[in-house]
Amino acid sequence: MSDPGVPTARSARWWVQKFVSAALLFAVGLGLIAAMGLAQRLGWISGGGGGSVEAAPSAEGDSVYTCPMHPQIRQPNPGSCPICGMKLVPATSSGNTDLDELAVKIEPAARRLAGIETAPVRLEVMTSTIETIGAIAIDESRLVTIPSYIDGRIEKLFADYTGVVVQKGDHLAIVYSPELYSAQVEYLVSLSKLNEDSSFESVRESQRRLMRSLRQKLVELGMTEQQISELEESKEARSRLTIYATDSGTVIEKLAVEGKYVKPGDPIYRIADLSTIWLMLELYPEDASRIRFGQRVEAEVQSLPGQTFEGRVAFIDPVVNERDRTVGVRVEFLNEDGLLRPGDYASAKIHLPVGPQGEVYDAELAGRWISPMHPQIVRDEPGQCPICGMDLIPTSQFGYSSEPVEQPASIVVPRSAVLMAGSNSVVYVETEPGRFEIRPVVLGPILKDDIIIRDGLTEGEQVAVAGNFLIDSQMQLAGKPSLIDPTRAIQAQQETTGPLNPERIDVQNLPGPAGRQIEELYAAYLSVQSSLADDQKITEEQAVRLNRTAAALADSDAIPESLKEPIRLVAEKSEHLHHMDIEQARLEAFRPISHAVIRLAAAVRGDQAEDRFTQMFCPMVEGGGGDWLQPDDDLRNPYWGSAMLTCGEIVRQFPLQGSETTAADPHSGHSHDNGTVEDAPP
C-alpha cells in the first residue's frame, strides 16, 4: 500500500486533469463573455424597445446581472454564478426594461450585421422522396425447378445451355429408366386382364382397383396424362421418359449433363419467368414505417441510363435486421420487354405525398382493387389476378382512401427556421418590423429542405431562417422563454388557443352497417354531452355504449384508415369514463373525445342521416378552451354545467350548407358578461 503522504503517478495525473479542465472551462467562459461584450458594443441585438444594450451600466443598482452559461440566474448586483462560478454579466437595464415577454426587438442596422433573414410560411401540397439503392432479383414466386421423378440415366438434354427461353410443354430431357419400363408392363398386363370377360364381379372390381393403383404409380414416376393415353393405345412399354417444361421462362441453371445418373428429386433445370422481377431495397425503420403495400416506386438501372421504370411495393419486412438496423422492402416491376436483368443495381425513388398529419395519399389507388400478391395488378372492379388467380381486394384494406380525394395542402417552413432541442421545437416569427416572437410549434414530417408544421403557425407569417440562434441567445440572456425552456411561451400559446378547425369539412355519406354504427357513435356521444351539461355523472351504460361502438368501428373495413385514429381515441378515452368524477371526466376524457368526434363529423355521416351538428367552443375551459358538438344551436356548456351553462360560442355546423367550403367565422356567435349568445347562425 502506498504512503498517503507521498503523491503517486496516478494521483498526480488526476490533479493535472482537474487543472486542465478548470483552465478550459475558465477559457470558454472568458470567450463567451468577450463575444457577448463585443456583440453588445457593436449593437447587434437590442434588449429593449429602442437602442442597443449598454456594455457598462451607469449604476450597479439599476442593472440586472445574469450568467452566460445559466441565463435563469438573475441578480441585481454583480458577482459569481452560484452554479458554475462564472462572473455575472449585465443583462438589461431597469431603466430600459423590455416589457415584451415573448419577443425581442432588433434594429435594422444590427439586423444587417447579424445576418438575420426571414421567409414566409407557405401552404403547399408536399411530397416526401426517399432515395436509396437496391439490387434486381428474380421473382421467387415465378421460379420453378424441373426434377427427375425416377431412377435413371439422362440420355438427352434439349435445353443444353443456360439462358434458353422455353415455353410450357416444351421437351426438356429424355431419361432412360428400367423402373419405368417395369411399371408400364405391369399396367398393360392389368389393363389386359380387366378387358377379359369374367363371371365374377368381385374379381373385376379387384382388377379395377389394381389398375387404378398402377396408373397412379405411372403418374408419380413422371408420366403425363397424354403419355399414359398413348401407352394405352399403343400397348407398347417404353424405357425412356420425356420430361416437359411445366412453366414458361428462362433456364437460369442447368444442373445435369447427358449421361448423368439421377435419383427421384434430383434437379435438372431451374427456370424463372422474368416477365416480373423484384427490386430488393433496405430502408431505415423510420422510412419503412411511412411506406405501405402498393406504394409507387421509380427506379433507374445502371445499365440503362436515362430510362425510368415504375413498380409498386409488394412486401415490407415486419422484422428489423438486427445486424444493420434496416428493414427489407421488395418492389415488383413488370418486365415484359426483358430489359431488367437480375443481379443489376438500380437507384430507386419512393415519392410519398404527405398531408398535414403525415397521411399518405395516392389518387391512382383510391377506391380501386389490387392483387394481394402482385401490386402491379390494379383494377376498377373486383375480380381475379391474371397472374396468381387470387381474388382482388379493396385498396382501402391497405390504408388508401375508398374514394378519390385531393391531397390536402400543408403548412411548411424551411428546415433552418426550426430550432430543435430534445422535445422542444420553436421558431421566431417577425410579427412587426424588428420584433421577433418565439413560437412553439408541433412538427409533422421532416422533408429534405422543409418541415411540415402541424400546429403553431399560419400561412403568410414571416419566420427567421438565418440568425435565429442569435435571437434565441438574446431571449435567454433576457430571461425570457427560449429553446432551452419554452414553457411560458407554450402556456401563453395555450391561453390564446381558438376553436378546433378540422382538416376536412366535406362530409361524405357512409352506407350500410358502418353508416349506422357512425350514427350510433354520435348518439352515444350526445348522450354523454347532455349528462355533463346537466352536471350528471356518466353512467356505466353510457360509457360502455360509447366504448363498444367506437371499438367496433375501429375494426370495420368500411371505415377509411385516416378516420380510424380519432375513432380509436374515442374508444380509449371512454373505457373508464364512468369511473371518473364529473370534473375529471370533463377535462381528461370528454375534451379529447369531443375533438375526435368533431373530426369525424366533419368527414363522414350515415347514408340516411339528415340531421345537422353544431360545433360549440368555450374559451374559458382550462388549457386553451374546449369544443363540443350539439344536435341544435341551444348552447349548453358540458365543461361548466350549471356554473356557466351558456358560456361559449357557435363555430360552425356539419354538414355545411350551400357554397360554404371553409369554417365559419369563429366569432359569429360570442358570449357576453351576461352569458348569452348573440348573432348565432341559424
Q: Notable features of this structure?
A:
682 residues; alpha+beta; 12 helices; OB fold (Dihydrolipoamide Acetyltransferase, E2P); disordered N terminus; conserved putative lor/sdh protein from methanococcus maripaludis s2 fold; single chain; 37 strands; elongated
What does this structure look like?
The protein is of the alpha+beta class. The protein has 5 domains: 9-99, no CATH class; 117-123 and 409-495, conserved putative lor/sdh protein from methanococcus maripaludis s2 fold; 140-272, RNA polymerase II/Efflux pump adaptor protein, barrel-sandwich hybrid domain (OB fold (Dihydrolipoamide Acetyltransferase, E2P)); 276-398, Beta Barrel (Elongation Factor Tu (Ef-tu), domain 3); 508-678, no CATH class. Helix content is 27%, strand content 27%. The chain is built from 12 helices and 37 strands. A hairpin with a 5-residue loop joins strand 36 and strand 37 (677-678). The chain is elongated, with a radius of gyration of 38 Å. Residues 1-10, 24-61, 93-97 and 657-682 have low confidence and may be disordered.
Provide a brief overview of the structure.
By secondary structure, the protein is of the alpha+beta class. 27% of the residues lie in helices and 27% in strands.
Instruction: Return the domain count.
Output: 5
Q: In percent, how much strand structure appears in the residues?
A: 25-35%
- Strand numbers in spatial order across the main sheet: 7-16-19-18-17-20
Approximate shape: elongated
> Could you say which structural class the secondary elements and strand pairing correspond to?
alpha+beta
Tally of individual helices: 12
Oligomer: single chain
- Helicity, in percent? 25-40%
In whole angstroms, how far apart are the ends?
93 Å
Q: Please give the number of β-strands.
A: 37
Show unreliable segments. 1-10, 24-61, 93-97, 657-682
Gyration radius over CA: 38 Å
Mean pLDDT: 79
Main pleated sheet? 6 strands, antiparallel, barrel
